[in-house]
Design goal:
about 260 residues; 9 helices; elongated
Amino acid sequence: MSDWLVLLLTIAATCAVIIVAVQLRHRRAASRPAESEDTTETPDVIEYMTMMVGVVYAIVLGLAIAGVWEERGAAEEWVRQEAQALHELGERAQVFPEDTEAEVRGAVERYVGYTVEEEWSYMIDHGGLSEDGDQLFAQLRQTVSGLQPATAPQGYAYEGMHQQLASAAEARASRGLSAESTLPAVVWLGLITGGAVVVGMLFALQIRRTARELLLAGLFSALIVFLLYLIWHFDFPFARGLNDSTEAFRTFFPQVLPEDG
């Protein structure tokens, strides 16, 4: 079942619960007219409280959406930086002899191939980097550190390769951190509880069974559900937030990662 189908079913179920709750509330009030509430007016204090709760919750939702969207962009940038640094690492090895260049490129391609084909799924499932990936990156570092520049161009390239290696290491570590959930559990508890409170305040406003009020109540509830889904969708960038999180690697290393792979 796709995420969008789950979203539509959740919205429909939420709207149905609101409508059924309103119908039951009015049926219960009609069966006991002595205890029924006056639906012609709503106390000012309830309107004020509802407004304040709605404003506070809207601010919290906005901050949560901005936070997960920013983390999504950061995760995408870290992947691009890592792929580009590894690509530059192989390109700078051209000034060395052919066997040395082949050794460096081979170490880079082994790491890239494992990262995309094996470590990516591990990172999504476990929220972190794998030990095998760490070992392959350590082997790549040893390969670069073991080079012996013999000419001035090789010396310049050797220095640049170390800079690119450090950039790739930073991007790799940040990619591992981005694989975790952006929002802690306590924030999710607050978002869900706040959404239930905001929707529940509709009943404090004594909504009636008119088509207009039921429609507005349903649309408001659907909006809350959609915004929560949006936050959940971008909370794990590599699992859901990015359309193709490995696109940068496939762009820089088409010989290792064909498009149909």
